Amino acid sequence: MVKFQDLGISSATMKSLNRMGFEEATPIQAETIPLSLQNKDLIGQAQTGTGKTAAFGVPLVDKVDISSDVVQGIIIAPTRELAIQVSEELYKIGYGKRTRVLSIFGGQDINRQIRALKKNPHIIVGTPGRILDHINRKTLRLDNVSTVILDEADEMLNMGFIDDIESILSKIPEERQTLLFSATMPPQIRRMAERFMKEPQVVKVKAKEMTTPLIEQYYVETQEKTKFDILTRLLDIQSPELAIIFGRTKRRVDELSEALNLRGYTAEGIHGDLSQAKRMSVLRKFKEGTIDVLVATDVAARGLDISGVTHVYNFDIPQDPESYVHRIGRTGRAGKEGMAITFITYRERSYLQVVEKVTNKKMEKLIPPTVDQAIEGQQKAVMEKIMNIIDENNLDSYKSTADELLKQKDASTVVAAVLKMLTKEPDTTPVRLTEEKPLPQRRDRKFNDRNSSGGGYKGKKSYSNSGSNSNSRQRQGYSNKRSGQSSSSYSKSNSYR
Ligand SMILES: Nc1ncnc2c1ncn2[C@@H]1O[C@H](COP(=O)(O)OP(=O)(O)OP(=O)(O)O)[C@@H](O)[C@H]1O
Ligand SMILES: [Mg+2]
Q: What EC number(s) is this enzyme filed under (predicted)?
């Protein structure tokens, strides 16, 4: 166990970390902070939810000269919501030193950002398009930047962003420190990244699997037309605290959230076609628990750290394994457990095998619950809740009404009525979901060929299509798992977001 004070951090930054409740450094923090403090270039790879933000944030803040009024560090992130989140974490880390951190991203009033830039921030966190916009308007100068960080580096260096990143880097002095972080780093992206870096060290936290062991991973094989009913049955039985459901396209996300609302769930969608105000309000409501299901495209797949997310459902299997790793990584963070369920149609089986091969982790097969099992599962969940309430032993004010009821009806009838009241009966309200075509069947084709969507990698990789037969891995993972838990930047993004 490594303590932060053993990593050579200043006392002002230590004060912030104490305030944040950080005691021990996570492995990626312990390995990269000392190197980063020595101004080494590095590529840091560690599983989702293991503290990569502080791994780059702590040394950056520590090196900032707050007596100087120039921008000294810049962090580039692929989505607006992530830029905001990272800037908030950096603000907390920099609190002890009074470091000024500013986020700049598309969809927000540019004049407001220009005024904020005039207040001389030390650290900028932004999305590529808006950063470039400010550079071109000469409202942001990067000539004194000594550290540049690409969060979600492999995403930042893929086809959708690479040109913007190259333009931004060309405005930063050569003698800078360059840091790249992500949970995934396909080899061809890493090779490309090394062109921007000086003798980079690759720090990869040793792990057998690319995904974190905190997440139970299941898949459900189903037909396209039964997916939605199975999804709602799973939601009823598993009763997530907060759930994220990923859909493949923006239309899919709109239709799914509408359908969920029709069936009585409080769900809202987030994707790149919504106004920034709407995106932020949806996310805020989800964090507060005003809505408990967030339906999202891959715009929410990377980096977002929302406590209370116990379940991730891939309503549509993602098109590449990296996306899978990041999507399911929205649960099982900072030591908490989570569950991920991926729906596949029969024709998409080969994608499952590719994901398993890249993550080095087999998903277990989940047999979809029947309607009867769903009702039974819910009753069990309700029973558990009732037992918990009994354990809390706080029922005195209800006792006399209870006695009165029991005078009129026998105990078993009264309890049955209460159960009925608390159980959500199967809802068959008709919903309209446009059928999504299954992903093209893979034979020896290249998996990452997402050219049509503009989101693929420049370098392509091919995976072999052979894999073990997964039919033997069956289990019914229906347990109620609450216990473990406590557009400018979009101009380049694909129509899938
Ligand atoms: N040393 C620490 N002690 C306790 N909590 C920590 C520590 N470091 C980070 N955390 C918390 O862990 C959570 C996950 O951290 P973070 O978002 O940086 O993960 P990440 O590795 O960047 O994940 P992703 O790959 O999904 O972006 C955050 O809530 C963060 O505040
Ligand atoms: Mg992160």
A: 3.6.4.13
